[in-house]
Amino acid sequence: MNTPVNDRFADYLRQISGGLKHMNAEQRNDVLAEIRSHLADRAEQFRSQGSFEAEQDAIRALGDANTIALQFSSEALEQKASRSFRPWILMAAALRMAKLGARGLAVFLIGVFGYGLAFGALVAPIIKLFIPQTGMWIGPHEFVLAGVPGDPQSARELAGANFVYLMVLVAFLSGTVTTFLLRKMIRSREHAKAIERHPVSPRS
Fold first, then answer.
1. pLDDT tier at 103, thresholds 50, 70, 90
2. Which residue among 88, 100, 159, 160 has its CA within the 20 to 30 Å range from the CA of 69?
């Protein structure tokens, strides 16, 4: 967004612009335009109350530029993740949410477990090429989903020749369920935040 040199809000808007992430140029310009409009309205309000530093009062009322940029960046990432099927985007949003509270941490841990299980299931058939005993085992005191039991003599392999196909199925189901679950939880958080959203909010 091009800002006139003599703009009284230029430095503040420039700081916010530098911290905005996870949004395209149009979204960034929309956010900055909304913030500029909000600042102008607040400055006019302070001016009507007799303030001699209305613009600075408006900036102080809105808050720290870096904090504002982080807020909008987080919202933009969550909006992007709620519509995405890419695990790395969903996990990036979940990681940000994990830093904000217990619910966010739960979302992140679900993602780690689900995608971790999917990854492990995909790797297991490759490991079997080098360690033929790799499989799905059950014994008197243990169950191994994909690996080698501690005591092969007392354990029984369940999958047999279908082990590779079973692991591919586990990877697909785990990855799919985790993706849709994260999308749903992120979207749920997005809707909850919309109810009490800051007066200035990024457009999707």
1. confident
2. 88
* pTM of structure: 0.66
Within 10 angstroms of residue 98's Cβ, the number of other Cβ atoms is: 19
The dihedral formed by the CA atoms of 139, 143, 144 and 150, expressed in degrees to the nearest 10: -50
For the CA atoms of 190, 195, 196, 198, what is the dihedral angle to 10 degrees?
Answer: 70
- Output the average pLDDT for the chain: 85
15: which 2 tokens?
A: 């700081």
Please say if the pLDDT value at position 80 is more than 60. yes
